[in-house]
Amino acid sequence: MLVNISQTNFRNGAMRMTSPIFALFDPTYFLVIIGLLLSMAASAYVNSTFAKYDRVRAQSGATGTSAAQYILQQSLINDVGVREIDGNLTDNYNGQTKILSLSQATANSTSVAAIGVAAHECGHAVQDANNYGPMRLRSAIVPLANIGSTASFPLILIGVFMGMNQTLIHLGILLFSFALLFQLVTLPVEFNASRRALSILSDGGLLTPQEVPMVRKVLTAAALTYVAAALSTFLQLLRLLILFGGNRDDN
């Protein structure tokens, strides 16, 4: 893509962008590329790890669905339904509807990987039943995170094309930071759900002691995707701060 790059000047060791277009196409894109590569690597790792242990059949013969139902029953959770949904690794728990959704790759599979993923989602249901603090905080942040993800870049772009309007640009950066906050809060929620899942599987009869470490590898790989997403968002926020955080109106 060809762009016009106007003159840049340096002040106090920091590069200031005198062209709004240059601010959108500059070397700091390497931060975005690094974040993208991290996310791609984490996604590839979780997919390969799941595929590896999806080939290992659990000795109990339990499917992801029956495992989830068993765990919920053992945890005295009677108000959560389990359903099958389309997709691969699209498993999730919705605390508002009290529905635990398992993807086709999980619901009907008897692999240790499928049981581990189902147990992880049950971990979220247990968190919900126990009013787990970080999970409540994450739910409270969701509206702000959604607004931030949707409105941040349009506000920044409008600010840039209105002659570097600092109010709009900084408001956009602030909104984008809520998306990062959401992802940071998500980390302890996901790690805790995995710990709960491993504890449940270790104490129950769904997996043998030899199969539990396999599930640990699957859940660890899945957790890395959340870490990569948080790092990617942080790098994007860092880029915005480098580009616009120090800009001031000289007039």
TrEMBL record:
InterPro entries, sorted: Zn_peptidase_2
Transmembrane segments: 28-47, 140-162, 168-189, 223-244
Pfam families named in the record: Zn_peptidase_2
UniProt entry keywords in alphabetical sequence: Membrane, Transmembrane, Transmembrane helix
Protein name as annotated: Zinc-dependent proteinase
Species annotation: Secundilactobacillus similis DSM 23365 = JCM 2765
Lineage: Bacteria, Bacillati, Bacillota, Bacilli, Lactobacillales
